[in-house]
Design goal:
single chain, alpha+beta, 1 helix
Length: 69
């Protein structure tokens, strides 16, 4: 079986007040693709103000999880 690549959005912020809006926007932009792939979405904090939002088969379809790297 060929696995589709993860679809990724990167979010970098310097203004903490914008963080929620930018992460929500990134997640919402991936929802149609995640559903089409029957995958969930993972949000990972990769550093101060830096986040990766990606579709992944490791997360149940319909769910979004958050973790720190």
């Amino acid at each position: 079986m060929i696995q589709a690549p993860n679809l990724i959005r990167r979010v970098s912020v310097t203004d903490a007040g914008m963080l929620d809006d930018l992460l929500n926007s990134a997640v919402e932009s991936l929802i149609p693709d995640a559903l089409a792939l029957s995958e969930g979405i993972r949000v990972t904090r990769t550093g101060p103000g830096d986040y990766t939002v990606e579709t992944t088969p490791d997360v149940t379809c319909g769910y979004t999880i958050c973790e720190a790297h």
